[in-house]
Amino acid sequence: MAAAAAASKHVDLKIVFLGASGVGKTSLVQRYANDTFEPTQSTIGAAFTLKTWHGRRFGVWDTAGQERYKSLSAFYCRGAGAAILVYDVTKADSLHALDAYMDLLASAKDGCFKVLVGSKLDLAPDAREVTLDAAREYATSIDALHIEASAKTGDNVMDIFNHIGVGVFGFDAMTASANGSPASTPTPTASTSTVRLDDDSAAKSGSDKKKCC
Amino acid sequence: MGEWIQLRKEVHLRRIQLVDAWAEAAAGGGRAAVHGVGKLSVAGMLALLNGGDAVIASLKERLVELETTMREMQMARARSSRTGGLASSVQIVREAWTGDGGRADEAGATTLRTQLEAIVSPPGTVEALNIKAFISLFYSESESASTPEVSDAEPEPEAGVGQSLVDEFDIVQGSSGEVQAFLEALADLVLFRHPHIEADRDAVVYALEDVVFPAIYNRALRLVRDEAGDARLAAQCKAFGHVTQSRLGIEPRYQSVQLVPFALPIALLKAVYVSVTPSRKLRALFEAAQALFDELHAAVPETPVSTDVFLPAFIYVVIKANVRGLATTLAFLNRYALHQLLLGELGFVVSSLELAAEYVTGLDVDALPAPDVCLQGRPFLVAERERYRAFCDADDKFDFRPGPPVRVADHWLLAVPAWFWHPQYFAATLVVPAGSLALPAATSGPAVVTGVVTASSNLAPAQAAYIDSVFFSPPPPRQVISIDVFDYEAVDDSPQAALIVAGDAGAALQCAPVATDTVFWIPGGDFDAVSRTVYTAVMAEKLGIVDGSHYAGHVVPDALPGATVVAWDESLGCGEELAEAVAAAYGPSWGALWSDADVGSRVRALVVALQHALHILDALPVFVPVQEQFGFILSAALTAFQAKHGLAASGGRLDPAGYSDVMGVLEARRAHLARLGHLDPDASLAQLLRTPQLLRDAVRAFQRSEELFVDGRLGAKTMAALSSQHGELVA
After folding, report:
1. From start to end residue, where is composition biased (Low complexity) (chain A) (predicted)?
2. How many alpha carbons fall within 13 Å on the CB side of residue B297?
3. pLDDT digits over B424-483, tens only?
4. Confidence of residue B514 (pLDDT cuts 50, 70, 90)
């Protein structure tokens, strides 16, 4: 019965993680879900996470990154209101591997909000292969916000979701939060390439909820 | 309702107990094999029929009893849903509507009616029609009846709806979610009228589903039925039922080590089919997924289970569960489940199921991780410990000592037939290393044996050809053939293996970190020599022509502490020495069987002839196939036949005398049939056994002429009639 009760939770926004195997999707999900790099157990593992953002319920879907399931991952994208496209900043080919996922987003909702996330930021100083410029250029080409984050240190992980929340529900959703404990303002830190919400592209993304994937 | 649920729970529990009992029996004595969840293999059935474990038998009996009761209740429920289901639904909702005082709020009722009718727009859909009928009945009842009771003796409202559907509408596709939207509206109504109800809205929706969906389920299902998809998926699940965890990409550390891998998720997934409401189907599916997550998490508790880990295992579960009507079920869920739910956890598992179904539909054996790179190294010969136990208990020629199971990561198993080894659940498997023999250095505890391939009915032609090309060039004699198909499921993925290593010491050494005390090393032998020798040795032992002195085991030198050489004796090559031993024991014609390279096929020919003969003599159960394997079934049948016909017992072994005796009995009947004109008198028995259909046709012709039951088998009555007819003819 507990399972049924847990399973009956409605979701306001479906967010789907996409990216090649090993780029760190699951770690990011876990970090967001538990705000820790330590593993924890949820109802169905790390595959699905339900988290509330200023009264809105985010359903975060992890997807399989293996090549053999890539073309089938469209099933996971169906009805998604936001997509987090993850690449590994230490692996150049992981960025352009995302090309294959763009078609899958055709099954997402119209105006699906996209965020390009460079993972493993903590390893960047020694092993960066994807430059900020290249990532930003790619983000622009797919009409996505760009941010780099580390599941290990937690840097910028929450901001990914703040960007999505603001992008989909608007700033009002944060400021009108009834609990009086708004999340940190989703502004970038100097050490990352986070697109500022007051940038043109970000502002457009944040205000234009009908933007097509 | 409560009784029904209780009964279903009890049946489920019994099934689990039964599977556990089989598993236990299989582990303890290797007598029963579990063939998937809820199904007993033929071998398992025979074990039961032959006076197997009383606990299993009693469980089986109770399960049959419960399932019969459940079927009867199900039929009663179906009858009820056809006659009074909708009326009952109306009653429940109307009671909620009228409240304790029994008076409806007229203004509210009108508003609600308008709202509900708006929900079912556009009209002309099955759901709309049903909902309209529901509304109509609901309002007519509440307006006309002074009492809220709705009699089940009323005309069948459900049949009327169905008729209206046929008369007034074509079956057209309506927009999805209508039914759920309607149910939600009803739930709001119920909660509005009964603020004291402490149930959340979803719970009320589920409750309403339970009363509404049984009434519309069959038509709803018909509307979404995908027969072609169902058939394709079922065929694929069946075709790939043998695919192992490894080949589907389940990481070794997550692979199930149970006798029936992922038995609980498989059992739960099967329940998806029997549920009749979208929510129940979703919950059954979710519980299956959750059980799988739990199992995967238990395997590696230090790491959260990601979709990368979950999905291959889920595909494995979907294949093994082979859920009836899976494509239709998915269409049903997508059409009737509340779409808002499909964005959450439930949606995740539905999407996973869709992905799995799509993957399985397009599954091609060539697309699976190919064993090509695995097969170029040095081969191993592996055998399952549990399957050896009975043999080892009775005979210590082989040194299979107790200890932890050996599971070798990244290795591929090939199966060797049971009859190579012992006529009682004695499967052996061949394993070859995956590319390199190096096992993960960090392996803590046992790794997992991966992959099973058989070379007959369970083996895809491409696999068979591959095995031939890699191992058997030139192909014959084939050393790797099918295991007993009855035992197949139990072999699949079983980690219970002792390891016999053929090849150089280096190969063995690299396996040593796994579990040295269960590695059996045969130094210096290549695959062909080792397999042939072991095969020969076991067959020779089976035929009683060698004794224990040939199996003198000895501890392998320091390189592999604790390991023991088994079944190795230079004198047991399959060449002249063995042929001489056989010839000395049974005469030159039998000795010749062993004197050339084609040992296997010639012995198999004898076994096949014996199986055909015993079938025609009605001494083998009808369902036992002719399969070239001298297993315990054939052994038992031979013993029984010898006893029945007063022949000399051969101890269940196939020896020349026993073989001749059986053929003698059949030859007499062949002669009778020939004299009666049913057979060509020039056709010898040996020829007829190569084309046994002729012999069976002759028996059938005789049976028809005598107005006997026609089955092509020489049962007691046919045998008596044949003797009598022949006697008259001779007289």
Report:
1. 180-194
2. 19
3. 222 233 333 333 222 233 222 222 222 222 222 233 344 445 444 443 344 322 222 222
4. very low
Minimal Cα distance from B302: which residue of A?
Answer: A39
Global confidence as pTM: 0.49
- Residues A72 and B359 sit within 8 Å (Cβ to Cβ): yes
Q: Which of B520, B519, B536, B539 is nearest to B528 (CA)?
A: B536
Looking at residue B203, its amino acid is A
Pairwise CA distance, residues B69 & B63, whole Å: 10
* Residues B182/B343, Cβ–Cβ less than 8 Å: no
| pLDDT tens track for A100-110 | 888 888 888 88
Place of tokens 């595959």: A47
Q: How is B643-690 classified by DSSP, letter by letter?
A: HHTTPPP-TT---HHHHHHHHHHHHHHHHHHHHTTSS-TT--HHHHHH
Give percent helix, percent strand, percent coil of chain B, each to the nearest 5. Answer: 60, 5, 35
CB contact under 8 A, A63 and B307: yes
- Helix H or strand E segment including B501: strand B497-503
Task: Enter the tokens of residue A159.
Answer: 């901001």
Report which secondary-structure segment, H or E, holds B74. helix B54-83
What is the third-level CATH fold of B224-362?
Answer: Glutathione S-transferase Yfyf (Class Pi); Chain A, domain 2 (1.20.1050)
Q: Which range is most confident: B352-361, B570-579, B590-599?
A: B352-361
Give the model's pLDDT for residue B189: 61
Say how far apart CA B387 and CA B31 lie, in whole Å.
9
- CATH fold for domain A13-175: Rossmann fold (3.40.50)
Q: Please, are residues B617 and B644 in contact by the beta-carbon 8 Å criterion?
A: no
Cβ count within 10 A of residue A68? 16
pLDDT of residue B581: 56
Q: Where are the domains of chain A?
A: 13-175
**Does this complex have an ipTM over 0.85?**
no
How far is Cα B603 from Cα B655, in angstroms, rounded to an integer?
A: 11
Nearest residue of A to residue B305 by CA position? A45
Chain A interface disruption, residue of B306, B309, B310, B340, most A CBs within 10 A: B306
Only one residue has tokens 């493993």, namely: A120
pLDDT in tens, B692-707: 888 999 999 998 898 8
Strands, E assignment, B163-251: none
pLDDT tens string B138-176? 444 433 333 333 333 333 333 333 333 223 222 223 444
Listed residue (B146, B149, B144, B133) closest to B86, CA to CA: B133
**Bridge partners (DSSP) listed for residue B429:** B382, B415
Tokens encoding B492: 């699949």
CB within 8 Å of chain A, chain B residues 287-306: 287, 289-290, 293, 296-297, 302-306
Domain residue spans in chain B?
Answer: 1-83, 90-138+164-222, 224-362, 378-472, 601-619+631-725
All residues of chain B having their beta carbon less than 8 Å from the beta carbon of residue A21 are 308
Smallest Cβ–Cβ distance between B348 and the set A21, A61, A69 belongs to A61
Asked if A47 lies within 8 A of B303 by C-beta distance, the reply is no
